[in-house]
Amino acid sequence: MIKYFSKDSILESDSFFRRNLINCLSGYKSLNLIGTQDSTGKTNLAPFSQVFHIGASPPLVGMLVRPHTVKRDTLENILETGFFTLNQVTPEFYKEAHWTSARWEGSEFEGTGLKPEYFEDFPAPFVKDSPVKLGCSLVETQTLKVNQTILVIGSIDHIFVEEEGLRTDGSLDLNVLETVTVSGLDEYHVGKKLARLSYAKSDREVEEI
Amino acid sequence: MIKYFSKDSILESDSFFRRNLINCLSGYKSLNLIGTQDSTGKTNLAPFSQVFHIGASPPLVGMLVRPHTVKRDTLENILETGFFTLNQVTPEFYKEAHWTSARWEGSEFEGTGLKPEYFEDFPAPFVKDSPVKLGCSLVETQTLKVNQTILVIGSIDHIFVEEEGLRTDGSLDLNVLETVTVSGLDEYHVGKKLARLSYAKSDREVEEI
């Protein structure tokens, strides 16, 4: 059976119900911990599910930030220092990753017990136990007129990957890396591979590769 | 063992290797088939992995479109008619979903055998077998200065959900709906739930709910 919601019925529904539903509609979302620090070196760590690929050459990543949420520290630190890290999450520490979204007085690293890691003089902390860590620099920000959400675009300057998950063609085996994905606001999953598929051509059906 | 890539080593690497790697770095991505039609009613269907939540009130969705790819028809149709559909993919038809990315002379529906479905006079086709279907209208587009990628923002006007996957709190059980997620350019997965976690507070550890 199919359940239908019109825009009016969504707007009239309970705000908790609406938030849960709308956050699930795009499907599974990427999960990354974003590491930053302010100009005094105080570190911050926050979970983001709206990080996405923008381009491969040069390598660019985008993320959406709400200006008026608890995650504001992340944006302020990025604007202040110009740098941030992205860290994939595994089942070993997804509960600590979720816990970083609480309102902590001090650093989320101290609060949750997640260990920071530094690379040379890069001015943002990485998450030590993450299997895929990116060091990024700010390229530009754009404010979306429609609801003041801020799109942050970063250049991927440093990549650290667990070798066991790196294939010879450059792709990552996210099942081996045990990358966690999130749905809605609070539900976490790992992936279970169906197949890789061949480059699509209209004169033949796609095949598993 | 950790493998390190600097920005320079990424830019100097083989373009196939680079594209595979960079496309995997954000983690699992949402997968949606976007349905559109032109002013003559000719339908188009294309897979997108860069669809994301922008806001819940009003309900807004965003997607990134490259202007110079085979998926250009989608953007042109959206600009022409102002409407599009988003359709989650299941293991039953993920191969056909991938196949829609080939260069088809006619409609991707006819080419791949996926069945279209229409709702009243909404001017874009839905995918009949999809468990989560959204009818959206164009709100605004923004071109990213950095690489001319286009951000399309849509209002979610109609939602169709398989009832078996809709929980009483509004969230969707994507495991039950068998929603497919994609990594990199060509690898498909289903999700396997770890847990839902309680609202995070700094004075207590998060719990499974």
TrEMBL record, chains A, B:
Residues 33-166 form the Flavin reductase like domain. It comes from Algoriphagus hitonicola. Its cofactor is FMN. GO terms for molecular function: FMN binding; oxidoreductase activity, acting on the CH-NH group of donors, NAD or NADP as acceptor. This is NADH-FMN oxidoreductase RutF, flavin reductase (DIM6/NTAB) family. It comes from the Bacteria. The lineage of its organism: Bacteria, Pseudomonadati, Bacteroidota, Cytophagia, Cytophagales. The keyword Magnesium does not apply. Pfam families: Flavin_Reduct. InterPro entries: Flavin_Rdtase-like_dom, Split_barrel_FMN-bd. The keyword Iron-sulfur does not apply. Belongs to the flavoredoxin family. SUPFAM superfamilies: FMN-binding split barrel. Keywords: Flavoprotein, FMN.
